[in-house]
């Protein structure tokens, strides 16, 4: 069972990550990577977006030696943002379904667009697009002298973390809502079977009484 100290460590480690939720570290979101670091299960050099700044912060927090970025996770690249060529978009929603920070809006069979201010350049939308209408463009970087990352601000990281949590909560509610009718139907079916068994038993008893 995780202790309060464990949770505090995970939060501190998570705060060292730029919250792009890109999964390049091998974990589904930054929090899971932080949790694995806290347990000593993974290396501190698996965050390409954070680069050297993140590795240094994690090394200091965990009292581990610095390490070069793990090439298996990719390389640190200049920050980008996604752009949908809207004339080619077929409205399949696949990019919306994978965007970890809800930076893409649109409806099924309608044109989608990227909210430039919310896109973190994770690139998860690119491989899902069946018509290759998404491109990555250089992002305009707002300098933040208080940020540990040269390409991300603290405010952006905090916002992406909050948007990721809101998205996860929304999807969990949707899954629960979808599962509820199935459960009700299942209980209803079991009740129907019980009623039929009771009726069959009563018919047998009635025939015996009449014999």
Which key features would you list for this structure?
211 residues; 3-methyladenine DNA Glycosylase II, Chain A, domain 3; 5 helices; two-stranded antiparallel ribbon; two-stranded antiparallel sheet; Alpha-Beta Plaits; mainly alpha; elongated
How does this structure look, described?
The protein has helices spanning 4-15, 30-38, 51-62, 94-98, 154-210; strands spanning 80-84, 104-105, 113-114, 134-138. It has 211 residues and is mainly alpha-helical. Among the domains are: 4-73, 3-methyladenine DNA Glycosylase II, Chain A, domain 3 (Orthogonal Bundle), CATH 1.10.15.40; 80-138, Alpha-Beta Plaits. The strands form 2 sheets. A two-stranded antiparallel ribbon has the order 1-4. A two-stranded antiparallel sheet has the order 2-3. Helix 1 crosses helix 2 (30-38). The longest helix has 57 residues, at 154-210. The model has no long low-confidence stretch (mean pLDDT 91).
What's this, in brief?
This protein is mainly alpha-helical. Among the domains are: 4-73, 3-methyladenine DNA Glycosylase II, Chain A, domain 3 (Orthogonal Bundle); 80-138, Alpha-Beta Plaits (2-Layer Sandwich), CATH 3.30.70.20. The protein has helices spanning 4-15, 30-38, 51-62, 94-98, 154-210, and strands at 80-84, 104-105, 113-114, 134-138.
